[in-house]
Amino acid sequence: MGRERHSMTLPGSVGTAPRMEAVRTLHPAYFALVMATGIVSISTHLMGMPEVAEALLWVNAAAFVALWAVTLVRIVRFPREVLADLADHQRGVGFFTTVAATSVFGSQLVVLRDAPGPALVLWFLTLALWLVLVYAVFTALTVKDEKPALDTGINGGWLLAVVATESVSTLASLLAPAFRARAEALLFTSVVFWLAGGMLYIWLISLIFYRYTFFRLLPSDLMPPYWINMGAMAIATLAGTLLYASAPLSPLLATLSPFVLGFTLFFWATATWWIPMLFILGVWRHVLRRFPLTYDPLYWGAIFPLGMYTACTFRLAHVVNLPFLLAIPRVVVWVALGAWILAFVGLLRRLVRLAVGTASP
Questions:
Q1: Largest CA distance in the chain
Q2: For 325-338, how does the pLDDT look when each residue is reduced to its tens digit (9 = 90+)?
Q3: CA distance 227 to 123
Q4: How many other β-carbons are positioned within 10 Å of the β-carbon of residue 188?
Q5: CA-to-CA distance for 55 and 58, rounded, in angstroms?
Q6: What is the reported pTM?
Q7: C-alpha angle with apex 32: 38 to 268, nearest 5 degrees?
Q8: Mutual orientation of helices 183-214 and 251-283 as an angle, nearest 10°?
Q9: Tens digit of pLDDT for each residue in 304-325?
């Protein structure tokens, strides 16, 4: 998820050259905006802030529609750039945000609106996007002739493959109670994607950890998506809690309950381990090495893990009846909301500057 091109515009603003250039260079990972807004909305809802959650739902609906509109324009007008991004080791994995964003928006509709019908449509779209994008991106990266070295080719953004896979699981589990006749099939699919996402994490985090500890790391290398190191395990935890709670709906899950709970705790412990490490690296980057902290669309990939950790810890505390854990989401939800507000202000400033033609795409 490189830093060389990452602009955004709105569908109604593509009439001038700078705005069309913003569409051409739109970062594939911009759907992380929907991921972050959706999970912060769900988290604030769980933590008793319904007005905030409702406002974020409307913001997310607008962002979801706008990003799809701009993305479709980009596919039609700039297909070569889209295909180039697909086979790029830095930018290609950003397409997985499209999968996760669709699922998170569907989850919002279930949790905040109790609207399983539209959410089911979004789940099928999530599944279709996963099937197309996961295999298209990894095939393109595998068969290309020229490849970067490990230290320049991989970063935390690669774990968006895990997030996308786990997002199929989370929405399937949320839909199961509303579709009892299909509950067994939905939950079986949820289990499969939950386990596949966990295996993907083991593969990818091994490479990422190796890159961090055995190659020189510059402040510019420590891009915001490194927070997905934690976020991928947080969404795996959330998926596990939803599966554990769904055991009464599925004989298979009833049998697997101890296994599901054990791995869910394993995922949560891994996510929790990452948080101090990520804060330490953030201090090293911005305080000790004085790397500028300015708006970057990739920061949405850092806000999503904060919201997801809030939601997964809240759910874990309830399904295992450990109320003392609720102290964690009561604090982290404010960190996630504060980070979202700062990033959204930065986004608005970028859009205003783009609208008046003073922002570089």
A1: 60
A2: 999 999 999 999 99
A3: 25
A4: 14
A5: 5
A6: 0.92
A7: 70
A8: 30
A9: 999 999 999 999 999 999 999 9
